[in-house]
Amino acid sequence: LFGLLAEAGNAQKTDLIALDNGNQVIGEVKSLSRGTLTYKTDHMGTLSVKWEHVVMIDSDKQFQVETQDGRVLLGDLRPTGESRMVQIGADTLPMIELVVATRIR
User: Fold this and answer.
1) What is the DSSP string of 33-82?
2) Which residues contact 57 (CB under 8 A, 6 or more apart)?
3) Full-model pTM
4) Is-contact 65 103, C-beta < 8 A?
5) Under 8 Å CB-to-CB from 105, ≥6 apart: which residues?
6) pLDDT over 70 for what percent of the chain?
7) H or E segment to which residue 6 belongs
8) pLDDT tier, 11 (very low <50, low <70, confident <90, very high otherwise)
């Protein structure tokens, strides 16, 4: 049992974000709130990234996302091939429209 818990705690961080300066960071998306993406990495710890600097996000984890116009969407966060666009389940929208994202466990 303890081995399984330790393994779950050390799960691979496979989410990817790309920033407007060209950097890409592999880690784990934790949440988006108040214009800040909380992102956990293995080597840099937990980062607070200003959402306006994120141009691409790719996560196969499930999120509950709230948009500027009050919609609530459920799904993974996938890139569309266009900068600053994201696919959430069957919906595609500009990333700027996301105001809150909470990972569903």
Assistant:
1) ETTEEEEE-SSS-EEEEEGGGEEEEEEEEEEEEEETTS-EEEEEEEE-SS
2) 15, 16, 17, 18, 29, 37, 77, 79, 86, 95
3) 0.86
4) no
5) none
6) 89
7) helix 2-9
8) low
